[in-house]
Each structure stands twice: as C-alpha cells, then as structure tokens.
Amino acid sequence: MATETSLPHSHERSIHRPIPPPPNPTSVLRRPAPSKPDVLTTIYKFPSMEPKSFAYYPANQLHLPLRRDLLHRAIVFEGDATRQGTASTKWRDDVHGSGRKVRPQKGTGSARLGDKKSPSITGGGVAFGPHPRDFSSGLPRKIYDLAWRTALSYRYRRGQLVVLENGIEIEMNEPRWLAQIMTWNHLGQGDGGSLLVARDLEENISQAFSGLDVHGKLKSEKDVDVKDLLKAGRIMIEKGSLDALLRKHSSDLNRKVPSAV
C-alpha cells in the first residue's frame, strides 16, 4: 500500500513579497496650482499717445480666457434692462362706448357682430395687444462681474485696450482736429473707431467728441457697459477709471459675494 510522502521543505525565501497598502489620500501632500504672473500695461498720454509709465494687473482681471457664453448672457441682461415695456393697448372693456348690438343677429346677410367696441370694428378694442410689462431678466452678480473682466481681457489680449493717464485734457475743442489725431494714431474710423472712458469729462473733450461721429465716442465711467466694450474697435480708458471698474466688478474674487442682481 502506497503511503503519502511529505515534500521536502525549501529553505529559499519566496520571491513574492506582500503588496504594501495604498497610501492614505489625506496624507499625500499636493502641490498648489502655480499662480499666473501679472500682466503688464503701458500708460499713454492723450492725445500725443506717448508712453509714460507701466502698470501691473493681476491675471484674473486682465488675462482671462474668452467665454462667449458669459458675454452673451451679460449683453442680453443689459438689453433687457433697457427695455421700457410701456407699450399699451385697450381691450374692448377699456374702450368708451355703448354695449348695444350693432345690427340684428339674423336677417341682414352679414356676419354676427356685437357692440361697436368689438375688435372686428375700426375704433374698437385690440385683441391680444401689448400691455405694460417688465422685460428685465435676472443674472447673478458674480457672473456679470466675470463677464465684465472677460470683455476687458479680450480687448487686452488683442492689443485693443489703451490705458491713458488720469485727467485727460486737450487744447482745442475742434472735432476736425481731434479726428485727424485719432486717424494718425490708428484710433479713428478706419480702425473701427474708439471709445473713450473717463471719470471727469473735460469741457473741450466733450465738445470735440460730440462732433466726431464715426471716429469715436465718449462715455462716462458710470455709463459704460459690457456691450460698449465689445462694440468699439479700441477702448481708451483712464487708469483711474479702469481701477475703479475692476474693483467694482470683482465680487466673484471676494469671499463675501453680494446678493444677485
């Protein structure tokens, strides 16, 4: 009868080593994302357009990627806010007149008709006409502010954002003289025109820009919006106005975000 024999014990170590447990994700130190460098802007003197100094701005203010969806939402939001919504028509109950039936119901050979206030009669009420309403739409404040800085970044990346010294002044209030200067500096109609944004509108500048027509427009700091930044060929803005607008539209960069618009 055959008997089982035990295999000889091997004194060699096993080549298979135990697999160490995976590291704890909480114990892994992650390197923070590298910060983007600041962007450099040149400060010019108007109207000679002579470079005077330089200024640095954070990349999250003047070097954001293009977001067409945000720009579209901001422009629609601004357009809805400017609609008056005052169109109004009168329904048959609002028209002054008698409720007596115009003609008999039968026997005339004509269609059935009620009183003279019917929409089928000239001078009667308007069926399904417009009534006063509010066209304004809502948009979160942080999205609108991000669209603002995206529009400025789009102009900066294309070299169409010209930062000027504060306190713009010109010697003459002649529109023809100012048009020649803007054409010489590639800021006139041939280059799409320009928009000048200033805080304090000097009298000579206001009179000169009032007759420029297609060469350029002048707007105050509080009157400019996202659509204006994208419509003109170039944006000329005072450094003080640029700083104020960036501070105003930076709610998404702060911890305490204001309530939605």
Give a structural overview:
The chain has seven helices and six strands; from the N terminus they run ββαααβαβαβαβα. The protein is an alpha/beta fold and 261 residues long. Helix 5 (203-210) links the parallel strand 4 (194-198) and strand 5 (216-220). The longest helix has 17 residues, at 141-157. It is flat, with a radius of gyration of 35 Å. The termini are far apart. The mean pLDDT is 84.
List SSEs in N-to-C order. EEHHHEHEHEHEH
Low-confidence stretches: none
How many helical elements? 7
What does the oligomeric state look like here?
Answer: single chain
Instruction: Give the CA-based shape.
Output: flat
Rg: 35 Å
- Largest sheet strand order: 2-1-3-6-4-5
Distance between the termini: 96 Å
Keywords:
alpha/beta; 6-stranded mixed sheet; 261 residues; 7 helices; flat
Write the layout of secondary structure elements.
Elements: E1 39-45, E2 50-57, H1 59-62, H2 68-82, H3 141-157, E3 161-164, H4 175-184, E4 194-198, H5 203-210, E5 216-220, H6 226-231, E6 234-238, H7 239-248
Parallel strand pairs: 1-3, 3-6, 4-5, 4-6
Antiparallel strand pairs: 1-2
Summary of the model, kept short:
The protein is of the alpha/beta class. It has helices at residues 59-62, 68-82, 141-157, 175-184, 203-210, 226-231, 239-248, and strands at 39-45, 50-57, 161-164, 194-198, 216-220, 234-238.
